[in-house]
């Protein structure tokens, strides 16, 4: 089963939620060879609850996952900023993720982000998997946090954007941190744009539909990470397209219509 651990369902967190854009994204994900993805939308994105409300109304439920008409399996998730600087991924049931997002409502502005230790205490009351998103991304300070807190992670994110910038250095640092902490490393594209799907993905030996099964398969190490030979091109192209579509929106245009007409 090909799974992407770090994806987004909106073009940008400050833009309105578009069902047409999200439907297009998921269709493209399936077309790119993914069987499943973790929808780790930014916790402070506009209309976070509406994204999941839409998916709950449109998808079939299998275990903890939501399955689209095309057969793409979606694990619910969230990407949360911490006060120290850095992004924390959480993966759970849609109900858990929605409840956690509501509880984080007072902490969605930059000067109110929770410290990592307090966020982990909040997560500890739920059956969610927690990972370090792109731990060595510039501006973040996750590797500098106390080691006893870092060991509470379930996984580290080998991130497609960072792989595209410098694969050797990103792998060296991420796997090095994983070895030091005794934590597994999985892969996520970090895409907001469909061109980026498949730049990096995690290939599991078996298919699963619950977070408990995911945790067990990660623990057993029954997977491998696959990096596309075109990862740098995919990430660069996706970034250019994202900027262009955001500019269309800023100028008052309908970027979704422009995109979907071009995709026909």
Description:
40% of the residues lie in helices and 22% in strands. It has a single domain, classed as Metal-dependent hydrolases (TIM Barrel, Alpha-Beta Barrel), CATH 3.20.20.140. Strands 1, 2, 3, 4, 5, 6, 7, 8, 9, 10 and 11 form an eleven-stranded mixed β-sheet that branches. By secondary structure, the protein is an alpha/beta fold. Strand 3 and strand 4 form a beta hairpin. The mean pLDDT is 95. Helix 9 (231-250) packs across helix 10 (255-263). The chain has helices at 19-31, 48-58, 94-103, 116-123, 147-150, 160-165, 167-181, 211-220, 231-250, 255-263; strands at residues 2-7, 36-42, 60-62, 65-67, 73-81, 87-92, 129-133, 155-159, 185-188, 200-204, 223-227.
Short summary:
The protein has 264 residues and is an alpha/beta fold.
Named CATH topology: TIM Barrel
Provide a count of the helices: 10
The chain-level structural class is alpha/beta
Overall tally of structural domains: 1
Strand content: 15-25%
Query: Main beta sheet: strand number and arrangement?
Result: 11 strands, mixed
Shape: globular
Mean pLDDT: 95
Rg, please? 17 Å
Q: Spell out the CATH superfamily.
A: Metal-dependent hydrolases
Low-confidence spans: pLDDT under 50, at least 5 residues? none
Q: How widely separated are the two ends?
A: 29 Å
CATH top-level class: Alpha Beta
Instruction: State the total count of DSSP E strands.
Output: 11
Order of helices and strands: EHEHEEEEHHEHEHHEEHEHH
CATH architecture: Alpha-Beta Barrel
Which helices and strands occur, and which strands form pairs?
Blueprint: E1 2-7, H1 19-31, E2 36-42, H2 48-58, E3 60-62, E4 65-67, E5 73-81, E6 87-92, H3 94-103, H4 116-123, E7 129-133, H5 147-150, E8 155-159, H6 160-165, H7 167-181, E9 185-188, E10 200-204, H8 211-220, E11 223-227, H9 231-250, H10 255-263
Parallel strand pairs: 1-2, 2-5, 7-8, 8-9
Antiparallel strand pairs: 1-10, 3-4, 4-5, 5-6, 6-7, 10-11
Helix pairs in contact: 9-10
């Amino acid at each position: 089963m090909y799974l992407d651990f770090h994806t987004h369902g909106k073009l940008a967190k400050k833009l309105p939620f578009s069902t047409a854009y999200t439907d297009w994204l998921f269709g493209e994900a399936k077309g790119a060879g993914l069987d499943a993805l973790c929808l780790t939308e930014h916790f402070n994105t506009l209309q976070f609850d509406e994204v999941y409300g839409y998916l709950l109304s449109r998808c079939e439920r299998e275990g903890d996952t939501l399955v689209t008409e095309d057969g793409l399996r979606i694990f619910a998730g969230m990407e949360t900023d911490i006060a120290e600087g850095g992004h924390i991924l959480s993966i759970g049931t849609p109900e858990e993720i929605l409840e956690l997002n509501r509880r984080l409502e007072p902490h969605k502005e930059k000067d109110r982000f929770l410290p990592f230790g307090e966020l982990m205490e909040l997560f500890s009351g739920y059956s969610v998997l927690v990972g370090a998103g792109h731990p060595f991304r510039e501006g973040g300070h996750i590797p500098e946090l106390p080691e006893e807190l870092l060991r509470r992670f379930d996984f580290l994110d080998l991130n497609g954007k960072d792989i595209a910038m410098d694969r050797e250095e990103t792998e060296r640092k991420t796997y090095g941190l994983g070895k030091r902490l005794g934590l597994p490393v999985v892969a996520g594209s970090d895409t907001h744009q469909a061109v980026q799907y498949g730049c990096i993905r995690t290939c599991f030996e078996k298919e699963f539909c619950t977070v408990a099964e995911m945790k067990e398969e990660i623990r057993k190490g029954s997977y491998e990470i696959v990096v596309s030979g075109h990862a740098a091109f995919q990430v660069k192209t996706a970034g250019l397209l994202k900027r262009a579509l955001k500019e269309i929106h800023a100028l008052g245009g309908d970027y979704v219509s422009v995109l979907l007409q071009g995709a026909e």
